[in-house]
Write a structure and sequence with these properties.
162 residues, binds 4-nitrophenyl phosphate, Rossmann fold
Length: 162
């Protein structure tokens, strides 16, 4: 059997953006019957919310889209950098924080702003909604769904069926 494509979504707290992205991407690959091709996880650059479920606002909006989030927050560790094939970060702070953990150019090449996969010409950033209102959380959900489609297209696995 072919090796799975290992994808790690990374934000600061691992309770808003990266669990939303994990859930959206998992939901998309499920819809396309491509689950068997992937290993998908998320984490935070901080350990502020270690062990917590996603923020209730994140879970509520995901639930409305039929996505049930059960992920528990965890902090990024050094092993993640070698283990995962794609390290998808949400903003420039995450990018700097993850980049600062390694000098290995192979790992540096795996660190990508998830927002680069959005379908419009907006900034390649998934903005932190934590101190904002529900509209910001809804925007995050829309953006991670859009970027999930773009990322799946980028991988080109659509046609690689069962
Ligand atoms: P996230 O949002 O990085 O999208 O999970 C945040 C969650 C918590 C905090 C900051 C951002 N915090 O400062 O506790």
């Amino acid at each position: 059997m072919k090796e799975k494509i290992k994808v790690l979504f990374i934000c600061l707290g691992n309770i808003c953006r990266s669990p939303a992205a994990e859930g959206a991407f998992l939901n998309l690959v499920k819809q396309k019957n491509l689950t068997h091709l992937f290993e998908i996880d998320s984490c935070g650059t901080s350990g502020y919310h270690d062990g917590d479920l996603a923020d209730p606002r994140t879970r509520k909006i995901a639930e409305k889209r039929g996505i049930h989030l059960t992920h528990r927050s965890r902090k990024l560790n050094k092993k993640d950098l070698t283990y995962f094939d794609y390290l998808l970060v949400m903003d420039e702070n995450n990018l700097d924080d993850v980049r600062s953990l390694t000098n290995d150019i192979n790992i540096q090449g795996k660190i990508i702003l998830f927002g680069k996969f959005r379908s419009d010409s907006g900034a390649p950033i998934v903005p932190d909604p934590y101190y904002k209102n529900e509209i910001a959380f809804e925007m995050v959900q829309n953006l991670v769904e859009d970027c999930s489609s773009g990322f799946l297209n980028f991988l080109g696995v659509d046609e690689c069926l069962k």
